[in-house]
Amino acid sequence: MKKTAVLQSNYIPWKGYFDIIHDVDEFIFYDEVQYTSRDWRNRNKIIASKKIIWLSVPVGAKVHRRITEVRLEQNLWQEKHYRTIEMAYHKMPFFHQYKEFLQYVYLERTWAYLYELNRFLIEHISHDFLHIQTIFSDSRKYPTLGTKHEKLLHLVQSAHTDIYVSGPAAKDYIVEEDYRKAGIQLIWKDYEGYPQYPQDSAEFTHFVSIWDLLFHVGDEAPYYIWGWRK
């Protein structure tokens, strides 16, 4: 029974994103769709001096473009993001465990497209730091028809999916009956119940970048994402 999830790539996502990745056999990046501004595609939250701040990758103001078309025209933001992360977390117990990787991403590499940056971070964090075995793929390798709900359903079918795991936000447009007719079991991901971890913040929050968890607990991070359910 093959489990599949389909999501747009996000910038240094929160732990729930990696929870879905861990749930499935194949995780399909769905970046051929419309880019949405003021969303998670190019920004996320971290905690600095016990307060939540945003890290945003500058992508310009162009409206009509797909996620795969979002170019990163200059790399001045990269050093800024690295210094901001370093200043916020350098005293955390496990920051130095990931410092070399951070330096490579932000100080040694340059990125032409947002989706390339996002996917690189997501795949390496998944495989190298969280030890997730899930296979990653690009939606463009599968044939699809239609738009919106129909296109997504056809993509899931093309991937020979038996069980489709979806985030709850998709309830706004997914037609569950169509999945039943196609013989695909639809599971809505439940993000409730995550245990708290030692977090250097004025008030604990789950809704920050995965970096916050990794810098605080290191190799114990999988427990706080999915391991606690066992």
The strand line-up of the biggest sheet is: 5-2-1-6-7
Question: From the helix content, strand content and strand pairing, which structural class follows?
Answer: alpha/beta
Distance, first to last CA: 21 Å
Mean pLDDT: 96
What is the H/E order? EHEEEHHHEHEHEHH
Helical amount: 25-40%
How would you sum up the global shape? globular
- Number of DSSP helices? 8
Number of strands: 7
> In what range is the share of β-strand residues?
5-15%
- Which stretches are poorly predicted, pLDDT < 50 over at least 5 residues? none
**Sheet bearing the most strands, described?**
5 strands, parallel
Rg, nearest Å = 18 Å
Brief overview:
The chain is an alpha/beta fold and 230 residues long.
Architecture overview:
- Helix content is about 35%, strand content about 15%.
- It is α/β, with parallel strands linked by helices and about 230 residues long.
- Helix 6 (about 175-180) links the parallel strand 6 and strand 7 (about 185-190).
- Helix 2 (about 75-90) packs antiparallel against helix 3.
- The longest helix has 16 residues, at about 115-130.
Topology:
Elements: E1 3-7, H1 15-23, E2 26-29, E3 43-48, E4 51-56, H2 76-89, H3 95-108, H4 114-129, E5 135-138, H5 148-158, E6 163-166, H6 176-181, E7 185-188, H7 210-217, H8 221-225
Parallel strand pairs: 1-2, 1-6, 2-5, 6-7
Antiparallel strand pairs: 3-4
Notable features of this structure?
two-stranded antiparallel ribbon, alpha/beta, 230 residues, single chain, 5-stranded parallel sheet, 8 helices
